User: Fold these one by one.
Assistant:
Number 1:
Amino acid sequence: MKNVTDSFVSLGYWPFAGSFGFNTDILATNPINLTVVLGVLIFFGKGVLSDLLDNRKQRILNTIRNSEELRGGAIEQLEKARARLRKVEMEANEFRVNGYSEIEREKLNLINSTYKTLEQLENYKNETIHFEQQSAINEVRQQVFQQALEGALGTLTSCLNNELHLRTISANIGMFGTMKEIID
């Protein structure tokens, strides 16, 4: 510091050249100017520079703190989203499994009901065939009976005369009389 004050004191001892001009002696002029400028800046700018640096430091610390809080919130939201995703995936798998089993169950129910319907139709068909067979058999019986009756009546009327007719009636009355005596 003594050199700096000596340079200011020594300014008063320099002789004036008598005219204005440039001092081209770099070693004599620049260190003095730099010393003066730096001294003024340090003396007056020390507080301002310190305040600026403190403000900048506080802003950086606040930004870091906010970033950490946001990071923590983002991590928390990410974990919640992952938990929801796992839950939704489990539910989707459950729906998928239940859906497949429900489809299989419905398929089996449909197959079973189709088999039952086919069995009922087969039974109805068999009953209808049996009914039609019985109707045909009854109709044939009636026709055969009718033809047999007509044939018997035709034979009886052609073979029977009055005398044979009276003997048959007498024989039948006699049989009834014998039967009545046996029963009594």
Number 2:
Amino acid sequence: MKNITDSFVSLSHWPSAGSFGFNTDILATNLINLSVVLGVLIYFGKGVLNDLLDNRKQRILSTIRNSEELRRGAVEQLERARARLRKVEMEADEYRRNGYSEIEREKVNLINATSDSLERLENYKNETLHFEQQRAINQVRQRVFQQALQGALGTLNSCLNSELHFRTISANIGILRAMEEITD
């Protein structure tokens, strides 16, 4: 037995560079170090891990409660919407029943209004035609009067000599002065 311990003791004094041997230093071995680290983590980390898990559990439970409340609210809204839908459907049926007579009444009113509008447009058209006819007649009259006046002036100018022309102008000037004195 002494030989075995001596062999371990003699191995512990070997230089570590370039040689193979057993490490008798307990703190230097990986397996022991790992078990110590894991033990410390489990001992001290257990409380932190429990707190984290408890917090997560509380958040999940509050989320579930909130979801349940939202679901209840959604169910209530759905019931209100269904009741409103039934009410609207009943009103729609009533409107359908009463609507046909209203549609007929509106149709008659629309036809009457359209007829009145057409009658007004016809009257406006007739007035416009009459106005345009009167305007055309007046233009023709002015044109005929201008041509007759030009013809008469042409005839007078060709028939009048300068002395007769001078007397006519003097007479017209005298008439204009007499009219001017009367108006003053």
Number 3:
Amino acid sequence: MAGVAKLFDGHILNKSKELVDLNDEQYKDKIIGLYFSAHWCPPCRNFTPILIEFYKKHAETKKFEIIFISSDNDEDSFNEYYEDMPWLALDYQERTKKSELGGKYNVHGIPKLILLDGDSGDVICTEARNKIQFDDTEGENFPWKSS
């Protein structure tokens, strides 16, 4: 998974706050969702439970992993919001990396869910939030490859 792993320089944490190696075999051939969101954002707080249900239902069968990239104003807010999320996260301390990723993927508003090919790092879908919340709630056409 060198593609996505290179984006993060090893700053991804699991729920136990342990560093995760995205080059590990368990992440091979995965679709990686970059989830830009924040505790203070009402649309985010509305979408996150929907995304959690989608993830729980489809993560294994569709080879799907999510990395939460927080726009929270402080680490306590990040911790409170991340508590219910069942996926990985960019270390909150990595504010520069968060800004770099937001710029790279043209994130101008949140919530934003961008799907990447985990192995190559190529963008698959920039509007995954709309697909999950409105257009394809069952994920029948996941990962919604752009043509």
Number 4:
Amino acid sequence: MSDSKYGAILLRNQLKELLKNPVDGFSVGLVDDSDIYKWNVMIEGPADTPYEGGFFPAILDFPKEYPSKPPKMTFTTKGFWHPNVHSDGKVCISILHEAKEDQFNQQEKMSEKWRPILGVEAVLLSVVSLLSDPNFESPANIDASVMLKKDPKEYRKKIRQLVRRSQDAL
């Protein structure tokens, strides 16, 4: 069986399981029923964080080499603001990085990076957790990181506006 067929079967099984037994904090579905490699994700803002009450859509894009290579996740909410999310919405978290040496990112441990044994649920739970606990050692959005450290009150205000916008979009 080719890697891409195995990946497609694995993704179908994981989607089926997540639809049958939903996990608190997110929901999933396909962007297009004919493409198992592109998923719609709705992340719920975690309780006791500035993101609480928000609903943040994202796309989870799986490579044809899945599970050998990690998916990419991008928030589609305009202006999503978080130290570990690029301005274009792309999520920067170790679990979504290939397990190979990176000369520009020495603080990231290989054990924290993508491994084929990890599933979609682990990825999404890690992203939900990241909203509660940003990684300041490797910020993707320097401005958000600086604001959260130096002016947490202003950061919280900005996130609460984002939450209200996300609620209005429903």
